[in-house]
Amino acid sequence: MPGTVFFSVTMSLDGFIAHRDGIDEAGVRRWTSQWMELQGWIFPQRYLRERLRLGEGGEEGRDNEIVRETFERIGASVMGRRMFDLGEPAWPDEAPFHTSVFVVTHETRDPWERPGGTTFHFVDDAEVAIDRARDAAGDRDVRIAGGGATILKYLNLGLVDEFTIALSPVLLGAGIRLFEGVDASRVAIEPIRAEPSSAVTHLTYAVRAR
C-alpha cells in the first residue's frame, strides 16, 4: 500500500514561510535574521542536531519527538528547482535527506549521488516526480520538501494527502504566503490534531477534494 504524500513547514503567525525573489541585499539580511527567528524552535532539537551533525546535546521534549517522527516516516522527497538551487551550495557533502530526492525541473541532468544515501534525481514533470517518489518510498511516506510554489502546485493538483504546520509566534510582514494562490474551490482540509509546545503549535490537517 503506498504511503502518504505530505508536507511539513514552519509558518509565521501572519502566514509567511519564505522571502520573495528580487529583494535587495539589505532585505535578504533582514529576512535571514527573521527566518532564523521563525525556525528557532527546530535547531536546538537533539534529533536535528544529530542528523545535521551540528554537535552533541540538544533539547529532548515533544518538539524533538515530532522532528524525529517527521524524518523517520520519509521514504523519498520531492522538491522544486528553487529549493534545490538554494540548498545545493549550503548542504554538506552528506546531504541531510538520506533518501532519493526528486527535483522538479526542466533542466536535464544526471542523478547526483551524495554520501549517506541521498541521491537527487531531476524530473521535468511534477506528477511523474510524485509517481517515482512513491515507488522509491515503498510503504513509507513521500515528503514534499518545498519550496512554497512546489507545495502549492501539488495541493492544486490534488496530490497532497496531509500536511503539518509548525505555527511560530513570529510576525514577518512580507514574503511568500503558504496558501497564496491555492484553488479553494477544489481543495478542502480537515483538522487531525493540534499540539502546542512551549515554542510553536503543531497543526496537522488531512487534505481532500472539495
CATH homologous superfamily - what is it?
Dihydrofolate Reductase, subunit A
Globular, elongated, flat, extended or rod-shaped: what is the shape? globular
- With strands numbered from the N-terminus, the spatial order across the biggest sheet is 5-6-4-3-7-1-8-11-10
What share of residues are in beta strands? 25-35%
Radius of gyration: 17 Å
**Mean pLDDT level:** 92
Structure commentary:
This protein has 210 residues and is of the alpha/beta class. It has a single domain (5-209), classed as 3-Layer(aba) Sandwich (Dihydrofolate Reductase, subunit A), CATH 3.40.430.10. It has six helices and eleven strands. The longest helix is centred in the N-terminal third of the chain and has 14 residues, at 25-38. The model has no long low-confidence stretch (mean pLDDT 92).
Furnish the topology, listing elements before pairings:
Blueprint: E1 5-12, E2 16-18, H1 25-38, H2 46-51, H3 62-72, E3 74-80, H4 81-87, E4 100-104, E5 112-113, E6 119-123, H5 126-137, E7 141-146, H6 148-156, E8 162-168, E9 176-177, E10 187-196, E11 201-209
Parallel strand pairs: 1-7, 1-8, 3-4, 3-7, 4-6
Antiparallel strand pairs: 2-9, 5-6, 8-11, 10-11
Task: Give a concise summary.
The chain is an alpha/beta fold. The protein has helices at 25-38, 46-51, 62-72, 81-87, 126-137, 148-156, and strands at residues 5-12, 16-18, 74-80, 100-104, 112-113, 119-123, 141-146, 162-168, 176-177, 187-196, 201-209.
